[in-house]
Amino acid sequence: MSNQAALRSDYVYFEEITTRWMDNDVYGHVNNVVYYSYFDTITNNFLIKKGGLDIQDSEVIGYIVKSECNYVAGISYPDKIFGAFRVNRIGNSSVEYGLAIFKEEQVNACAYGSMTHVFVNRHTEQPTKISGQLLEALQSVLIES
Amino acid sequence: MSNQAALRSDYVYFEEITTRWMDNDVYGHVNNVVYYSYFDTITNNFLIKKGGLDIQDSEVIGYIVKSECNYVAGISYPDKIFGAFRVNRIGNSSVEYGLAIFKEEQVNACAYGSMTHVFVNRHTEQPTKISGQLLEALQSVLIES
Amino acid sequence: MSNQAALRSDYVYFEEITTRWMDNDVYGHVNNVVYYSYFDTITNNFLIKKGGLDIQDSEVIGYIVKSECNYVAGISYPDKIFGAFRVNRIGNSSVEYGLAIFKEEQVNACAYGSMTHVFVNRHTEQPTKISGQLLEALQSVLIES
Amino acid sequence: MSNQAALRSDYVYFEEITTRWMDNDVYGHVNNVVYYSYFDTITNNFLIKKGGLDIQDSEVIGYIVKSECNYVAGISYPDKIFGAFRVNRIGNSSVEYGLAIFKEEQVNACAYGSMTHVFVNRHTEQPTKISGQLLEALQSVLIES
Predict the structure, then answer these.
(1) By the CB < 8 Å criterion, does D20 face chain C?
(2) What is the pLDDT of residue D1?
(3) pLDDT, tens only, D49-98
(4) Low-confidence ranges of chain C (pLDDT < 50)
(5) Hey, is the C-beta of D7 within 8 angstroms of any chain C C-beta?
C-alpha cells in the first residue's frame, strides 16, 4: 500500500504553483485531472533543480508507471496553492514520490497522492539503476521508515 | 484494494477518443496526466447517455474523491484509442468505476485504473443516495463479484 | 489580412474531434484556449496523413509563428464537432492554414481562424523551402485566389 | 488592425505564471495553445483583483470573441515567465486587451497578442454596457491613443 501523507508537516519540499483560469471545470473547481499536472510539475522541478535532470538531453529519464490521488477539499482558480513533494521509497530503478497540494498556509492537504517513476535509458527505454546526483537528491527527501 | 482490470474482455462499454497533438509530452508519448482526462470523459459520456446526467442542470452531480492509473505501454498522438468503462462497486452515494485505454484493437490495456465518484446535491454539496435512472445505468455495467 | 472563412463549403478536409469533459470551463462552454488545440490537432493530422510528417523523426518540422481565432457561437462537451482545414497561402518556407470548427452538420462555423507554420530544420531551426510530398499535399487543399 | 505591443515598456501590469511540465510539446517548447491559457489567466487575474469580477456569481461576465498571438521566441518549462497585460481599446460592451509573455527580465516579448471580451449578462447572454468598478479598472491600464 502506498505510504501517503496529508499533513503539511509530512513534507519538506514545497513550491508555489500558479492556478490558471482553465483549471476550473464546469462545477467551478479545479478539475481532478489538473492535480496530476501539479504533481508532475513539482516532481520535475525537484529532479531538475536537485537531481541534475535535463529534460532535453539527459541519458536517464523517468517514466511514470503508476499514479494516484485522493481529493479531500476543492480548490479553485485563482486560489494560491503550494505543491509538496517527498520520496516515499527508493528501489533499484524506481522511486515512489509522495505529493500533496495545500491551499495557502493550510496544514491539511486539499489533495494528496503518489506517483512512481521508473528511470530508463532514453534511447533503449531499459530500466537503469538510480545512482549519483539523482540518488543523493532523492535520498535527501526520503521519509524515514 | 481496487478491483482493476487490464483486458479488453473485462469491459463492456467503449468509446473512441481522438488524441490531440498537445497530448504528447517532450518524451514523445501521451503525458500521464492526460489519461485521467480520457477517464473522466468516458465516465461522463456514460453518465450523460445512460444515467441521465445533465452537467448544466442536474440536481445531483458527481465529485471525484479518488483516482488512480497504472501505465503499461505508451501511446502517442495520433494513435487511434478507445476508452473502456465499467462499474467496480456501487455504494450508498459513491461508485467506483473501472477504466482502461486500449490502442486500436489490442486486447491488453495501455493503461488501466479506477475513479471514485461521490454523488452530491449540487447546491448543498451533501452526499445523496444513488437511485432511479442513474442507479439502473450503473448496475447495467456493474461487474459480478 | 487573413483570408478567413466561416462556411462549411469553404473547406474540403474535415475530421471529427471528440470533445472532453475538461474542455468546458466554469461558464459551461469549451474554453477559448481549447479551440487552438483542435486547430493544431487537425493541422498535424493532415500533415501526417497527407504531407509525410513524422513528428518524431522528420528533418523538417513546422513551428507556429501566428494564430488567431474568431468565436461565433459556443460549443460544449459533449457536443459532436468537426474540425475543418484548408491552406490559405503557401510561401517559400511558410504556410497559412484556414481552420474552423463546426457543430454536427451545421453550415456556419462556431469558430474560425488561421495558423501560420514556418517549416524549419529540426536541428538548426533554420527555415527550409517547402517541397516534395509536403508541397503537393498543401497545394491539394490550397484555395484559389 | 490590432494595436499590438512586443516590448516590456509597453505594459504596466505583470504577473508571474509558473510553467508546467506538460506545457512542453514533443518539440521541446511550450505548445502554441498554452500561451492562450497564460493570456486568459492574467486577464482574469486582473479582472478579479481590480475589476471586481466574481467568476462564480457576477451578473456580468466576459465572453471571448476574438484572440490572436504572434510567437517570436520559444520558451520551455521550467522557464520563469511573466504575463503582461494592458487594455488597447474600450467599446460600449467590448474590450480589447493587449497581452504578452516575457521570459525572466527580458525586454522583448517571446509572444504577444490580443484578446477581445464582450461583457454579457450571465443569464440572458446579452451584451451589457461596461460601467462602474470594471470600467474604472479597465481605464486604469488603457493605452493612450
Answers:
(1) no
(2) 43
(3) 999 999 888 999 999 999 999 999 999 999 999 999 999 999 999 999 99
(4) 1
(5) no
In chain B, the residue whose alpha carbon lies closest to the alpha carbon of C54 is: B78
Q: Which residues of C touch D27 (CB under 8 A)?
A: 61, 63, 122
pLDDT number for residue B2:
53
- pLDDT value at residue C1: 43
Question: What pTM does this model have?
Answer: 0.96
Average pLDDT over residues B104-125: 96
Residues C8, C72: contact at Cβ < 8 Å?
Answer: no
Contact assignment for C21 to A25 by CB distance below 8 Å: yes
Q: How many CB pairs under 8 A join A and B?
A: 59
pLDDT tens for C62-78 read: 999 999 999 999 999 99
DSSP string for A16-60: EEE--GGGB-TTSSB-HHHHHHHHHHHHHHHHHHTT---TTT-SE
Substitution target from A19, A21, A25 for chain C, most C beta carbons within 10 A: A25
Mean pLDDT of chain A: 95
Share of chain D above pLDDT 70, in %: 97
Q: How far is B26 from chain A (nearest CA, A)?
A: 8
**Which of chain C's residues have a Cβ under 8 Å away from the Cβ of D37?**
33
| Inter-chain CB proximity B37 and C21 less than 8 Å | yes
Query: What residues does A13 pair with on adjacent strands?
Result: A85
- Contact status, residue A69 vs residue A113, Cβ threshold 8 Å: yes
**pLDDT at residue number C4:** 76
CB-CB contact of D74 with D101 (8 Å): no
Q: In this predicted complex, what is the ipTM?
A: 0.95
Q: C124: which 3 cell numbers?
A: 538548426
The four Cα atoms A45, A5, A28, B77 give a dihedral, to 10 degrees, of 50
- Chain D residues in contact with B34 (beta carbon < 8 A): 22
Output the nine-digit C-alpha cell for C133: 510530398
Q: What is the DSSP string of chain C?
A: ------BGGG--EEEEEE--GGGB-TTSSB-HHHHHHHHHHHHHHHHHHTT---TTT-SEEEEEEEEEEEE-S---TT-EEEEEEEEEEE-SSEEEEEEEEEETT-SB-SEEEEEEEEEEETTT--B----HHHHHHHHHTBPP-
Question: Across the interface, do B66 and A64 touch by the CB < 8 Å criterion?
Answer: no
**Which domains does chain D possess?**
8-140 (3.10.129.10)
The minimal CB distance from D32 to the residues C31, C40, C61 is found for C40
D25 vs B28: CB contact, 8 Å cut-off? Answer: no
